[in-house]
Write a structure and sequence with these properties.
Layout lengths: L1 H15 L8 H9 L25 H8 L26 H27 L5 H18 L1 H8 L8 H5 L1 H14 L5 H12 L4 H31 L1 H5 L1 H20 L2 H8 L5 H7 L3 H8 L34 E2 L16 E7 L4 H17 L4 E7 L9 H11 L5 E3 L4 H5 L7 E5 L5 E6 L4 H15 L24 E2 L19 E3 L10 E10 L4 E3 L3 E9 L2 E6 L2 E7 L2 E8 L4 E4 L7 E9 L4 E7 L1
Parallel strand pairs: 2-3, 3-4
Antiparallel strand pairs: 1-4, 2-5, 5-6, 7-17, 8-9, 9-10, 9-11, 10-17, 11-16, 12-15, 12-17, 13-14, 13-16
């Protein structure tokens, strides 16, 4: 638990100083120093409503002189004892802003999806609510009646000063909704748990510690704004003008967020927190903690390591749960792991469009054919990475094309993925005849070792078994320097150079001058860069310098793609229907080449893979 709290705190601190939060920092700074317009420059009031304090010539001084039991017959005024100076209420807006942010983040991250689904609301409703609150607060700073309206929900709170900070708290609520998308591994674990309604004590602890870590830098920044406003005379003299400026800034920020203008600013800044985030949030300790938050029954899996040199006891095999449907079974009926006791079972997590998974399939096929009669059973758990991979017909067609004829479970909600604390495609888990996980391997490679473990488990299950010779299919030697799988996603793309990407809007791009380095790609013509795919527009082209024997691309839609290798047209591909993997180039040996694609308007491109 202590480790989990530390991971959450550090993850929050990193997120709060990352480039994604920079656009809202001016709002936090100014919100901490702007008080109510009606109170600016005015003396404080006593509980009865009478003003006290202020200058000698102010209304407070006259009120103090005139108070008493009444006047004399000749009009003399009784002298009342001077009132003690009232203590000026302290500006608590910085705390109110940050408190609102923490509350909205924690509540809506964990329960937002559940509430939205229950009410049948659009999935992006929270973003619009946050933008709306930001605009209202901006209007409140410009027009005091609007601010008083925003503070009415807080009117029943007993402390007047707390009531006055209601608009600041509402601002924090709005900022929290807009702040949630700034995600790292810790926040990803929290949002996934919230999206599935799987709220455990560990998730709550992680969320609260992350929120506290987030709050600390923001509170420091808000307090700095308050200190500047308190100490700098120019701010005090121009309090009203400062409030109007802050209100305008908030409205401009809301418009910028709505139009994704701030994304261009963020992309132009270096990701100066990535190195620290990698060391802390993606460390081995953090992975073990974050990958096991969803199911307390699988904790023993963290005791084993990926690709160990010997069989170990990694705990009872988690159940295959939350499966949408099955195929390659009699009547498409589900398979229960308990029914496989006495057999050795290999559970393979995969997706049909993942090139890494595709390269692993021949090894699985060899093992299934060689060792089925000896007692090996393979189950493919198809855990989708893209939305189109949830469609049953796409998966069935992809499996048939690859020659996958063993039982496949569609894990569309990633329930079984979480049960196994999995994080990789592909991933193989070996289960012995007693139902215990004894070995697992993440990613490609070490097939000889995995086959050795299969053979050893088969002998343990039946010492009299006669095994065939090892299949001996070696790992591809090219894997070490082959161009990696590359997603055409505005958030996950790597190796991109050229005109900065613009999210979700048709934009004209241009190839950079000169040659493209190896493993780099660029766009030309009109493209729409989305999270799951890039959609081609007018005169769309794509260039990629790769190192591999062959290049492949998942495409969807209807149209043609012209393929050029080193400037020479080699083929034209006809694309039709749902997302499918298309072979772009073929080669007997690995080579470095410049690939250029001329893509018809409307076609969608998802991911490059290389073999």
């Amino acid at each position: 638990m202590v480790t989990l709290i530390l991971i959450g705190l550090l993850g929050g601190l990193i997120t709060a100083v990352s480039p994604c939060i920079l656009p809202v920092l001016p709002v936090v700074f100014l919100a901490g120093g702007t008080g109510r317009g009606e109170d600016a420059g005015k003396p404080a009031r006593s509980p009865g409503g009478t003003e006290v304090g202020g200058g000698a010539a102010g209304d407070g001084g006259r009120a103090a002189a005139e108070r008493g039991s009444g006047g004399t017959a000749d009009g003399a005024v009784a002298t009342a004892p001077p009132a003690a100076p009232a203590r000026v209420p302290r500006n608590r807006r910085p705390y109110a802003v940050v408190a609102g942010l923490v509350v909205s983040f924690a509540f809506f991250t964990l329960l937002g999806v559940t509430i939205i689904s229950a009410l049948g609301l659009p999935q992006d409703i929270l973003r619009y609510v946050g933008l709306g609150l930001l605009v209202l607060i901006g209007l409140g700073l410009i027009f005091p009646p609007v601010e008083r309206l925003l503070e009415k929900p807080f009117a029943r709170l007993p402390q007047r000063q707390v009531n006055k900070e209601g608009s600041a708290f509402a601002l924090g609520l709005g900022l929290g909704l807009l702040y949630v998308p700034c995600a790292g591994p810790v926040l990803a674990a929290i949002t996934i748990a919230g999206a599935r309604g799987e709220i455990s004590s560990d998730i709550v602890v992680l969320t609260l510690s992350f929120a506290v870590g987030t709050a600390v830098p923001l509170l420091v920044f808000a307090l700095a704004g308050r200190r500047v406003a308190d100490r700098v005379a120019a701010f005090r003299r121009r309090a009203r003008g400062l409030r109007i400026a802050a209100g305008c800034l908030m409205i401009v920020l809301a418009v910028g967020l709505a139009l994704d203008v701030t994304a261009a600013i963020q992309r132009s800044l270096p990701d100066y927190t990535s190195g620290v985030q990698k060391k802390i949030e993606d460390s081995d300790a953090a992975r073990q903690q974050l990958s096991g938050l969803y199911d307390n029954s699988n904790k023993e899996l963290s005791r084993c390591e990926d690709g160990a040199d010997e069989l170990r006891s990694c705990g009872k095999a988690p159940a295959l749960e939350g499966i949408d449907s099955w195929f390659n079974t009699p009547g498409d009926r589900p398979v229960d792991l308990k029914s496989l006791r006495g057999k050795v079972t290999l559970v393979d997590f995969w997706t049909y469009s993942c090139i890494n998974c595709q390269r692993a399939v021949p090894h699985l096929r060899d093992w299934e054919r060689a060792y089925r009669d000896a007692g090996l059973r393979i189950i493919g758990v198809h855990s989708p990475e893209f939305a189109f991979e949830k469609k049953r017909s796409n998966v069935v067609a992809g499996a048939e094309k690859l020659g996958v004829d063993w039982p496949v479970a569609l894990d569309n909600d990633l329930t079984t993925w979480d049960n196994y604390r999995n994080r990789f495609w592909p991933a193989k888990y070996l289960i012995d005849a007693e139902g215990t996980v004894r070995y697992f391997k993440f990613g490609e490679g070490e097939y000889d070792k995995t086959e050795k473990m299969i053979r050893e488990l088969l002998r343990q299950a039946d010492p009299t078994v006669v095994l065939p010779k090892p299949t001996g299919r070696a790992m591809d030697d090219l894997a070490a320097d082959r161009t990696p799988e590359t997603y055409l996603s505005n958030l996950r793309i790597r190796g991109y150079v050229g005109t900065p990407l613009v999210d979700d809007r048709p934009t004209a791009y241009r190839f950079p001058k000169g040659s493209l380095p190896v493993n780099k790609l660029s766009l030309d013509g009109t493209w729409t860069a989305g999270y799951e795919q890039f959609t081609a527009g007018k005169d769309a082209k794509l260039a990629f310098t790769y190192r591999a024997k062959n290049a492949n691309l998942v495409l969807a839609g209807t149209g043609k793609v012209t393929v050029l290798v080193n400037g020479e047209a080699t083929k034209t591909i006809s694309v039709t229907g749902s997302p499918t993997l298309y072979r772009l180039t073929d080669g007997k040996d690995a080579r470095t080449a410049r690939l250029e694609l001329r893509v018809d308007e409307g076609l969608q491109a998802y991911v490059f893979t290389f073999g």
